[in-house]
Amino acid sequence: MSTDVAVKKVSVTIDDKKVEVTPDKTVFQAAVEAGIFVPHYCYHPDLSIAGVCRMCLVEVDNAPKLQISCNTPVRDGMVVRTSSDKARQAQKGSLELHLINHPVDCPICDKAGECKLQDFYREFGLYKSRVELEDKVHKPKAKDIGTIVLDAERCILCTRCTRFTHEVTHTDELVIVNRGNRSELKTYDDGPLRNDYTGNLADICPVGALTARDFRFQQRVWFLEKKNSVCTMCARGCNTTVSVNPKTKKLYRVEPRRNPEVNKSWICDTGRWRYHYVYGESRLRTPEKISDGRVLESTWHQAFGEMKRALEDPSGIVIGLSTQLTNEEILELVLSFKESGVKHFVRIVDEQVIEERSPWDGVLKHRDHTPNAEGFARMFSMMNTKFLDCAGLAALVGEGNLRHAWFFGLEGEDVSWASRFVEALPEGVSLTLHATSRLPIWERAQWLLPAASAFEKSGTMVNALGRLQRLQAAIPRVSLARDGHAVAFGVQRGADRDAAPEARHVDLFEKLIAAPLLGREQVWKKLDPMGVALKERS
Amino acid sequence: MPALAKEKQILLRHIDTPNLSQISVYEEVGGYQAAKKAYGMEPANIIEDVKASGLRGRGGAGFPTGMKWGFVPQNTGKPIYLLCNADESEPGCFKDRVIIEKNPHAIIEGILIAARAINSHKSYIYIRGEYAKGARILQMAIDEAYQRGFLGKNILGTGFDLDLVLHRGAGAYICGEETGLISSLEGKKGQPKLKPPFPAVSGYLGCPTVVNNVETLSTLPWILAHGGKTYATYGTEKSAGTRLFCLSGWVNKPGVYELELGTPLRVLIDELGGGLKDGATLKAVIPGGSSTPPLTPAEVAEATLDFECMAKYGSFLGAGGVIVIPEHVSLLKILETISEFYWDESCGQCTPCREGTGWLFRILKHLHEGRGTSTDIEDLKKTAGNMMGTTICALADAAAMPVLGFLKKFPDEFYAALREREGQ
Amino acid sequence: MTEVSSPVHFSEQMLETVDRLIAKYEKPECALLPILHLAQDQFGHLSPPVLNYVASLLKMPPGKVFDVVSFYTMFKTRDMGKWCLQICHNVTCTMMGAERLVHAAVESLGVGVNGVTEDKQFSLVTVECLGSCDKAPVMQVNNEFVERALDAEKVKNLIKDLREKGQTTFEEVTR
């Protein structure tokens, strides 16, 4: 921003408020900058301008004809009125026409509470509809189109969704057929949606025409609390909000949070819906010891004790760290085990895709399913440690001295990309896995330690674009799951006595990570909400 | 009578010549001479001449043609397109059809002149899909013009290239709106585009584009041959030249007539049109196609056919569709029909138009069927008011204006419909 | 709903026409309307397999072709029979008696507006202004304007002619 070439700004007066904006802005954007809300349905900051809802009509320089603010460029000295009688009347008129064929079935609509039609309806005080129900144009209701349920009757034809499938996913499966008030939103072949970003359609739909099957009728939205976080399903690090019911502390949905530098307003369906593993059947809830193929429920106390004893001969131990761990967890685990004399460290990473910096699908998805390979690489210098790759691990195994392999921070139900590291270990090496979920491959382990999921821990990560971002715990840890900090703390003590200090990650970040990465300190708070772009890695 | 003397002087002067659609006949009556003259002129001088003529677009909006050409930037490095709007679809209008079927070379010659003026090397004629016969005739004319060297490479040895393609629409009134036409030509739904950007800067495929109506283009050969100033001596100060008027409805001799602008409306209806059929009494006249507010008999008696006079009566010349309505016809039925048309043809993108046209039609249908309620007339006014000037293109206005116009000028008939209902 | 149909394709000669059409325009998709006209002439109506085929010819997403087709009234997505009678029901034609033509056609054909006769010979629709108000009330059959002053009797005779002369072209019966 400070690097931007200085552009001469123009001065615009909106509702008697003066605002200076760059000349490439529209009146709508200038109003946003001035903190003035202009009602709208079709405008979306990350889609092309459609200009069809006609809700954002404003008075410009007292011209007789109102202009839509979303498509009117600013001019120096322009005077705009967004809520003059004339503008209000036109906005109200457009709103009323929006409602003419709308079923107004709010009590049974899942969008209620976050529906823009409802919001403006109240704001404009339209309590009596002039339209008799029998006269409305009827269209198909609650049609299944895969992950999304489509109610064409509630659709106000703002075209946000069709612009999305045209401009963002380039799939064009959603179309508006026919014309006039017979216009109908549908998938062109009545089939399911065919893209990996369908959840965004429910987000951008301003009314209840497109709702996500996953969330439908789960919760009334006004019961939920939102927390800012980042998605950890791939190296993109899309910004998210996580919605939690404050009473049950249960996670109900993950939504994109706008960051123009990372994900605009979108996330992929994986990032949105894969969170169910947090409550999944395969989730590890308590430490388990496996011997002779039998699973025995155990305790952290026992696990820490055994690990502490093993550390008496640290030369036979290799520590594996997943690139799904936060920067702080990585740092803490490495420093802690180094202090105990461990010499061998492995970076558990999807080696085939580690150099890929762009999404394979041209939208957001990276082939690297781990969120923090970049952060890990950026911290090499501060840890002053050599990390083996998979071949290095195999070579180490070849030396024959290895007795224990402790792999930390494996997250999710599909970590097949990491299986090579496990396969590199011979029978004689005892494997301890700190993971969120149980998978067939982990039958090979002697200890399974329940890991805190990305929704249950806080810290920082660096995405593939080199952006340092904050992950924030949204829900309490499931059962006995623990993050890397708690594990490092416990192993050092060899017992499960005291809890690791709260907010340990903040301390570690400010003391050890902020300065090397950013060249400055006291930045933890500044990372939210948008993160900070790091300089190119040398 | 001077008005009659000037009838058929410009656009229709050779219209009755047999086989005028053949290039040899067209050339025999002096065709393509004006194009030859234009190709010896500087483009800027052609534009000046057309500006001097006072010619205003004949598609309905009446924008000055020379000025429209002047908006085209010549330095973008992009190709410039000239599109001929032959999507004549306004109810009551059928003048372009006559030119297309009888005098297609006048359109081609007009295109040659306009293309030279704006430096365009690619032109399309967008003809409405229903004009299949017109399309066949135009295609033959285009083929002839290519053979004679008026189209293609190095036209008339000037080094100027121009390709002309005939493009058929497929049934959508809105494609007659210039940006809707452009969308349609791009292979999309014919939905009008947001302005800015304006077509002159960013039109067909994002390139500078001029859209001119069939009649406008067909007038150019005469203007070039006789000079813009001569053309401006016809008509009135703000309405220069002659125009084609499409006379239809309850008259004895419906048809297309060319009249000097400023001619009394009665000349068209009574003298050329032979008066009302069966000696019927006049109830109303729609002066410019279905979107234009009607005139009362008193207004008809006084009205002259020019932009200024129509403005005085709150109406427009539109695309020249003069519809004569006799006493025995229900204005409710007429207005319901008009409303149904705009409901049918609304492209559906802007909410006020999509929903408003449907709502107007439904209220009028109820009224006409005797199912009206006391709030209907207020609702009609309010809904029409909410549609005026609030949408991307003028279709919503076109739907709202006749409603407001009929209610204003013939309120009794609408209130009577309500009273009848209440009296039941 | 599954469409049962033989594989849809143009002949070699038609494909050459398609190539010629595309070459006239700056981009292949600009040729969509003319190619849809061509496909409709060839296949009678534009069924989903035809639309998918056209999309593949122009390398367009099929969705774009489906929504374009639904916008234009001349594109038929169902079988409208051999002769599609279109009667204008706009202002001038209504004033001049279009409803009588519709009644006559309904009576002769035994189907209502938007209906198709069982033998798939005729369909009847009302359409917007055809740009011939001086000849109102007007009617068009398939792509051809019926150039003779119309009343109920003449509509009935025209239908009779079309029915009896069967395979003859429209031009022959309306000359």
Summarize the structure.
The complex is a heterotrimer of chains A (538), B (424) and C (175). Chain A has 538 residues and is α/β, with parallel strands linked by helices.
What would you note in describing this structure?
The complex is a heterotrimer of chains A (538), B (424) and C (175). In chain A, 23% of the residues lie in helices and 20% in strands. Chain A is α/β, with parallel strands linked by helices and 538 residues long. In chain A, the strands form 6 sheets. In chain A, strands 15-14-21-20-19-16-17-18 form an 8-stranded mixed β-sheet. Chain A has a 5-stranded mixed β-sheet with strand order 2-1-5-3-4, with helices on both faces. In chain A, strands 6-7-10 form a 3-stranded antiparallel β-sheet. The two termini of chain A are 23 Å apart. Chain B has 3 domains: 2-232, NADH-ubiquinone oxidoreductase 51kDa subunit (Rossmann fold, 3-Layer(aba) Sandwich); 242-326, Ubiquitin-like (UB roll), CATH 3.10.20.600; 331-423, de novo design (two linked rop proteins). Chain B has 19 helices and 11 strands. Chain C has 2 domains: 12-71, Arc Repressor Mutant, subunit A, CATH 1.10.10; 83-174, Glutaredoxin. In chain C, strands 2-1-3-4 form a 4-stranded mixed β-sheet, covered by helices on one side. Chain C starts with 11 loop residues before the first helix and ends with a helix. At the B-C interface, strand 4, strand 6, strand 11 and helix 15 of B face helix 2, helix 4, helix 5 and strand 4 of C.
